[in-house]
Amino acid sequence: MSILGDPTLTWSKGAVPVLNTPAEGKVFNNYPRKTDFSWGAVGIPGATYSIEIDAFGAVKSGEWAAQSFKTFAVYHDIHGTSFTHNFVGAQPGRWRVRAKIGDRYCSWSPWRYFRYTI
């Protein structure tokens, strides 16, 4: 048996969670800054999830953490499709999720942005 086609394409690249809440551009004005995140399941039994949450200026003033080659907050081995996080300050934030199937991490979802005013 052989598989023909592009060897860079794999099934796992298509197992990207769809982000639900918070919606793109959501503005929060509550304190404490308890933030509930949710996404759709990838539909593969046994999948777990990682979520990355970033706060603008939290690692280095005026930059996202990735611009400083760092991460702000990453949580792994989430067995459901939701997560609650206490956000750090009155500033912009962003989040993304990826699935893990077996020992393979799939591609990250696109970033989704939000901000706190208080």
Account of the protein in words:
- By secondary structure, the chain is an all-beta fold.
- The chain has a single domain, classed as Immunoglobulin-like.
- The protein has no helices and 9 strands.
- It has strands at 19-21, 26-28, 34-39, 48-55, 73-78, 82-86, 92-101, 104-105, 112-116.
- The strands form 2 sheets. Strands 2, 4, 5, 7, 8 and 9 form a 6-stranded mixed beta sheet that branches. The chain has a 3-stranded antiparallel beta sheet with strand order 1-3-6, with no helix packed on it.
- A hairpin with a 2-residue loop joins strand 7 and strand 8.
- The protein starts with 18 loop residues before the first strand and ends with a strand.
- The model has no long low-confidence stretch (mean pLDDT 91).
CATH superfamily: Immunoglobulins
DSSP strand tally: 9
Rg from Cα: 16 Å
Give the overall pLDDT as a whole number.
91
Distance between the termini: 60 Å
Shape, principal axes of CA atoms? globular
Series of secondary-structure elements, N-terminal to C-terminal: EEEEEEEEE
CATH architectural group: Sandwich
CATH fold type: Immunoglobulin-like
